[in-house]
C-alpha cells in the first residue's frame, strides 16, 4: 500500500462501529468453519437461528470478507447506511458485482437483477440487510460498541505515544514498512495507491482474518482489522450504571449533578447528604480531574470538566444530568 505525505497526514481512527461493515464481516465468518475456534460456537449457534430472509446476503458476501463495497459504507446507523447503499451509482454497483462474480461468486438471477437496478431485487437486499442486522448485530450491539470504545482508546494511546508507523504495524501480524510503502503478508498480490485520499482504521469484533482494505470512489480508504477482543470473549452487558460501579453511587450522583455549576451546600441539599460528605466527594472528584472548583467568598462552586462530561456521556448518564437526582437518604 503506497502512502503519500498527504495520506500519512490523513490516517484517522473511525469514530464508531460501522453496522453494515460488521454485518458483512459477520456473514463472512458464518461461512468459515474451523478457521477460528474462538468463534466456532458462535458460528454454530448463529447458523441455527440465521433467518431465511437474511440468507440472500450469503450470495453476495464470500468467506473472504471481500463482498461488494457498495454494501458496507461507513455510517452512523443502519438507516443511514441503507440510504448510502441505495444512493450508490449504478455504474459502481455493476462494476462491484462484476468484480465479485469474477472472483468466484455465482452470478445468480438475483445478482444480475441487482446489477440492472431492478426494484424488487433491491427491496430483497434491503430486507436481507435489516433481517441480518436484527439477528446478528442488534442483540450484541452494546458489547460491540463497548469493544470499539476500548479499541479506539488503545489505538489513540499508541498513536499519541509512538506515532503513525507503530500504530499501523500493530494492527495485525505481518505488517512492515519500506519507506512510505506498507507491506502486508498475504497470498494475494495487490498494490493499492492511496493517492492522497487517506485511510480510516476500523476494528471489527467479528473478523479474525487478515486485514481488509476497501477503496471507495469517494472519501478515504478503509482499513479493517481484527479487534483485540473478539465478540465471543466480550462480557455480557450489565444493567448496572458503569459510572456508579466505577465511582460509587453517591459520587456518581454528585458528578451527574455537577453538569450544572453548584456549591457544596447545593450538592448536600439536593442529594440529602451532609455538607462535609459533599465536600469529601467533590474533593475526590477534583483529584480525579472530573470536576473543577472555585471559591467565591464563603461558597465553593463546582462543575464537571470535559473528562467528567465524557465519562457521563459514554455511560448514557448525561441524558439524565439536567434532572435533579433524588435524595440518597430519606
UniProtKB/TrEMBL annotation:
The keyword Membrane does not apply. It comes from the Bacteria. The keyword DNA-binding applies. Residues 231-324 form the HTH arsR-type domain. Pfam families: HTH_5 (PF01022). Keywords: DNA-binding, Transcription, Transcription regulation. This is Helix-turn-helix domain-containing protein. It comes from Streptantibioticus rubrisoli.
